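WARN  no MSA supplied for this record, continuing single-sequence
INFO  ligand: FE2/S2 (inorganic) cluster
INFO  echoing inputs
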Amino acid sequence: MTKVSMTIDGVRYDDDVEPRMLLVHYLREVAGRTGTPVGCDTTNCGACTVLLDGMSVKSCSVLAVQADGAEITTIQGLADGELHPLQRAFHEEHALQCGYCTPGMIMAAADLLRDNPHPTEQEVREGLEGNLCRCTGYQNIVRAVLRAAGPAGAAGQASTASEGAAS
Ligand code: FES
Ligand code: FES
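INFO  complex generated
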Protein backbone atom coordinates (compact mmCIF):
# COMPACT_ATOMS: atom_id res chain seq x y z
CA MET A 1 0.00 0.00 0.00
CA THR A 2 1.13 3.54 -0.68
CA LYS A 3 0.07 6.66 1.12
CA VAL A 4 -1.57 9.38 -1.01
CA SER A 5 -2.79 12.82 -0.09
CA MET A 6 -4.82 15.02 -2.35
CA THR A 7 -7.50 17.66 -2.26
CA ILE A 8 -10.73 16.70 -3.98
CA ASP A 9 -13.38 19.37 -4.49
CA GLY A 10 -11.83 21.36 -1.66
CA VAL A 11 -11.63 18.47 0.81
CA ARG A 12 -8.31 16.94 1.86
CA TYR A 13 -7.98 13.14 1.63
CA ASP A 14 -5.18 10.98 3.08
CA ASP A 15 -5.37 7.28 2.33
CA ASP A 16 -3.36 4.14 1.80
CA VAL A 17 -3.99 2.75 -1.68
CA GLU A 18 -2.70 -0.05 -3.81
CA PRO A 19 -0.14 1.37 -6.27
CA ARG A 20 -2.19 0.00 -9.18
CA MET A 21 -5.40 1.80 -8.18
CA LEU A 22 -6.65 4.15 -10.87
CA LEU A 23 -7.54 7.70 -9.93
CA VAL A 24 -11.11 7.22 -11.14
CA HIS A 25 -11.57 4.27 -8.79
CA TYR A 26 -10.05 6.24 -5.94
CA LEU A 27 -12.45 9.11 -6.64
CA ARG A 28 -15.50 6.88 -6.79
CA GLU A 29 -14.79 4.15 -4.28
CA VAL A 30 -12.70 5.93 -1.66
CA ALA A 31 -13.70 9.58 -1.95
CA GLY A 32 -17.31 8.89 -2.91
CA ARG A 33 -17.21 11.12 -5.99
CA THR A 34 -19.59 8.96 -7.97
CA GLY A 35 -20.50 11.91 -10.17
CA THR A 36 -17.41 10.93 -12.17
CA PRO A 37 -18.45 7.85 -14.16
CA VAL A 38 -16.41 5.08 -15.74
CA GLY A 39 -17.49 4.85 -19.34
CA CYS A 40 -14.93 2.54 -20.89
CA ASP A 41 -11.86 2.02 -18.68
CA THR A 42 -9.73 2.08 -21.82
CA THR A 43 -9.11 5.86 -22.04
CA ASN A 44 -11.38 6.25 -25.07
CA CYS A 45 -14.58 7.92 -23.94
CA GLY A 46 -13.61 10.82 -21.66
CA ALA A 47 -16.54 10.25 -19.30
CA CYS A 48 -14.12 10.11 -16.36
CA THR A 49 -12.53 13.50 -17.08
CA VAL A 50 -11.61 15.62 -14.05
CA LEU A 51 -9.32 18.58 -13.49
CA LEU A 52 -5.94 17.74 -12.01
CA ASP A 53 -4.24 20.95 -10.88
CA GLY A 54 -6.54 22.74 -13.32
CA MET A 55 -5.78 20.56 -16.36
CA SER A 56 -8.33 18.10 -17.70
CA VAL A 57 -7.26 14.45 -17.50
CA LYS A 58 -9.01 11.17 -18.06
CA SER A 59 -8.92 9.84 -14.54
CA CYS A 60 -8.90 6.24 -15.78
CA SER A 61 -5.51 6.95 -17.34
CA VAL A 62 -3.93 8.24 -14.11
CA LEU A 63 -2.93 6.21 -11.08
CA ALA A 64 -4.08 7.52 -7.73
CA VAL A 65 -0.45 7.63 -6.61
CA GLN A 66 0.36 9.90 -9.55
CA ALA A 67 -2.14 12.41 -8.18
CA ASP A 68 -0.41 12.53 -4.81
CA GLY A 69 -0.27 16.15 -3.68
CA ALA A 70 -2.62 17.32 -6.43
CA GLU A 71 -5.77 19.35 -6.36
CA ILE A 72 -8.60 17.53 -8.09
CA THR A 73 -11.87 19.05 -9.22
CA THR A 74 -14.71 16.75 -10.21
CA ILE A 75 -18.11 17.63 -11.59
CA GLN A 76 -19.32 17.64 -7.98
CA GLY A 77 -16.94 20.44 -7.07
CA LEU A 78 -17.48 22.66 -10.09
CA ALA A 79 -20.56 24.50 -8.88
CA ASP A 80 -19.98 27.21 -6.32
CA GLY A 81 -23.34 27.66 -4.62
CA GLU A 82 -25.12 27.92 -7.95
CA LEU A 83 -24.68 26.13 -11.24
CA HIS A 84 -21.43 26.72 -13.08
CA PRO A 85 -22.04 28.60 -16.37
CA LEU A 86 -21.26 25.42 -18.30
CA GLN A 87 -23.76 23.43 -16.26
CA ARG A 88 -26.38 26.11 -16.85
CA ALA A 89 -25.62 26.20 -20.58
CA PHE A 90 -25.85 22.40 -20.86
CA HIS A 91 -29.23 22.59 -19.20
CA GLU A 92 -30.45 25.47 -21.37
CA GLU A 93 -29.25 23.92 -24.64
CA HIS A 94 -30.51 20.43 -23.78
CA ALA A 95 -26.96 19.17 -24.21
CA LEU A 96 -27.53 15.77 -22.72
CA GLN A 97 -29.64 12.74 -23.45
CA CYS A 98 -28.60 9.87 -21.18
CA GLY A 99 -26.15 12.19 -19.43
CA TYR A 100 -23.40 9.63 -19.15
CA CYS A 101 -20.81 11.70 -20.97
CA THR A 102 -21.94 14.98 -19.44
CA PRO A 103 -19.58 15.22 -16.43
CA GLY A 104 -16.55 14.58 -18.62
CA MET A 105 -17.79 16.91 -21.36
CA ILE A 106 -18.26 19.72 -18.86
CA MET A 107 -14.87 19.20 -17.21
CA ALA A 108 -13.10 19.06 -20.58
CA ALA A 109 -14.99 22.18 -21.66
CA ALA A 110 -13.99 23.97 -18.45
CA ASP A 111 -10.34 23.36 -19.29
CA LEU A 112 -10.94 24.39 -22.90
CA LEU A 113 -12.56 27.69 -21.91
CA ARG A 114 -9.82 28.40 -19.39
CA ASP A 115 -7.27 28.20 -22.21
CA ASN A 116 -9.47 29.82 -24.85
CA PRO A 117 -12.37 31.79 -23.32
CA HIS A 118 -14.02 32.53 -26.67
CA PRO A 119 -13.46 29.57 -28.98
CA THR A 120 -14.96 29.15 -32.40
CA GLU A 121 -17.26 26.20 -33.02
CA GLN A 122 -14.40 24.36 -34.72
CA GLU A 123 -12.15 24.95 -31.71
CA VAL A 124 -14.83 23.56 -29.39
CA ARG A 125 -15.19 20.47 -31.57
CA GLU A 126 -11.44 19.93 -31.60
CA GLY A 127 -11.17 20.61 -27.86
CA LEU A 128 -13.78 17.96 -27.08
CA GLU A 129 -12.61 15.33 -29.54
CA GLY A 130 -11.38 13.12 -26.68
CA ASN A 131 -14.89 12.97 -25.25
CA LEU A 132 -17.49 10.72 -26.81
CA CYS A 133 -21.27 10.98 -26.59
CA ARG A 134 -22.78 7.66 -27.49
CA CYS A 135 -26.12 9.38 -28.05
CA THR A 136 -24.38 11.56 -30.70
CA GLY A 137 -25.66 14.71 -29.04
CA TYR A 138 -22.73 16.76 -30.26
CA GLN A 139 -24.66 19.63 -31.84
CA ASN A 140 -26.25 20.68 -28.58
CA ILE A 141 -23.09 20.00 -26.57
CA VAL A 142 -21.07 22.30 -28.81
CA ARG A 143 -23.85 24.89 -28.71
CA ALA A 144 -23.81 24.75 -24.91
CA VAL A 145 -20.07 25.32 -24.69
CA LEU A 146 -20.37 28.27 -27.08
CA ARG A 147 -23.24 29.63 -25.01
CA ALA A 148 -21.15 29.39 -21.85
CA ALA A 149 -18.31 31.16 -23.66
CA GLY A 150 -20.54 34.13 -24.39
CA PRO A 151 -21.07 36.30 -27.48
CA ALA A 152 -17.61 35.89 -29.03
CA GLY A 153 -18.02 32.13 -28.99
CA ALA A 154 -21.54 32.37 -30.36
CA ALA A 155 -20.19 34.33 -33.31
CA GLY A 156 -17.99 31.38 -34.18
CA GLN A 157 -20.98 29.08 -33.98
CA ALA A 158 -22.91 31.06 -36.55
CA SER A 159 -20.19 30.77 -39.16
CA THR A 160 -19.80 26.99 -39.02
CA ALA A 161 -23.19 25.76 -37.82
CA SER A 162 -23.54 23.19 -40.60
CA GLU A 163 -20.38 21.23 -39.83
CA GLY A 164 -20.40 17.66 -38.54
CA ALA A 165 -20.00 16.03 -35.13
CA ALA A 166 -17.32 16.76 -32.56
CA SER A 167 -15.33 13.63 -33.33
FE1 FES B 1 -11.92 7.02 -18.77
FE2 FES B 1 -13.59 6.17 -20.66
S1 FES B 1 -13.67 5.79 -18.51
S2 FES B 1 -11.86 7.50 -20.87
FE1 FES C 1 -25.64 10.00 -23.72
FE2 FES C 1 -23.69 11.68 -23.93
S1 FES C 1 -25.73 12.15 -23.44
S2 FES C 1 -23.51 9.58 -23.86
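Residues 154-167 have pLDDT under 50 and may be disordered.
INFO  checksum written, moving to next record
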